[in-house]
Design a protein that fits this description.
about 325 residues; 8-stranded mixed β-sheet; alpha/beta; 10 helices; 6-stranded parallel β-sheet
Amino acid sequence: MATRWGLCGAGKISHDFSVAIKTLPPGDHRIAVIASRSIDRAKDFAQKHCIPKAYGSYEELANDPEIDIVYLGVLHTEHWRVGMLFLKAGKNVLCEKPFAMNSREVKDLVATAKKNNVFLMEAIWSRCFPVYAEVRRLLTEEAVGDVKLVKAYFGSPRLKVPRSEQKELGGGALLDIGVYCLQFVLMVFNGERPESIQATGVLLDSGVDESVVVTMKFSRKRMALCAFSIAARLPNDAVIAGTKGSIKVLGPMHCPTKLVVNDKETEYPLPEPCLPLNFTNSTGLRYEAAEVRQCLLKGLKESPRMPLADSVLLTEIMDEIRKQVGVVFSQDSQ
């Protein structure tokens, strides 16, 4: 039986997700429904992507018994509210990143998923890429000896993008792209909590972070350095330096196709899209869709690639970074 997807939100990421699904076997995946707050947008999206059902409200999707999982592709300021709607309705959910606005909201989503015995995953698609799988294998084999330093950079000029620079839309470099650098560090260090976090950054006039540098210290004298910016272009790569060599994930590190291990490069090409994409390498969303299907078939309630504990820790680290840099959202006082 094909996994029946219900898409929530008819925006850019849902478009790319739909295109990515088409690169997978149709016997495995089927988009059954698209839901938007605007029925016209939903119908247009359905027509473009050949989706049989279109809804003009999220509640209709929550009440549809003929879907296996909801892909939550709405703005992250809405993730908690809309996510709770689906989880309480007994729906499995793949929620776009960032999971929510702060760790309180994330813990609330996780607790509700557990209470209702449903699958929940933060869509850190990076974790599902073949390059990341190879990185994990190399680390297990201690291919570069003891890891001493992890470095991850992500900078992309997007000051003209409202959701990147406006506070009420959950803007800032951290929640938009910094999350990718931090999740990479957590993957390398097996979801371990850092012993210390030091963050410094500069803010836009809107009160969100424009550029941030984070250093973290982990047990056994291990360090991590992350830099991210929505004002400048950075190398967008990630490096793991060990006592016996290095692993380099070539940019874009959040959706990579090239890996360099001790100067030897390997490429992992992506399939071509059937329609133009909004974001870089978006056919790679196929990997997280395939991961979700495998989890559902095995009866798992979370993904071992991106466990819920990693999502909680990730958000707690982001809360601490925001505190140090001075970014406060209205959701923090609720």
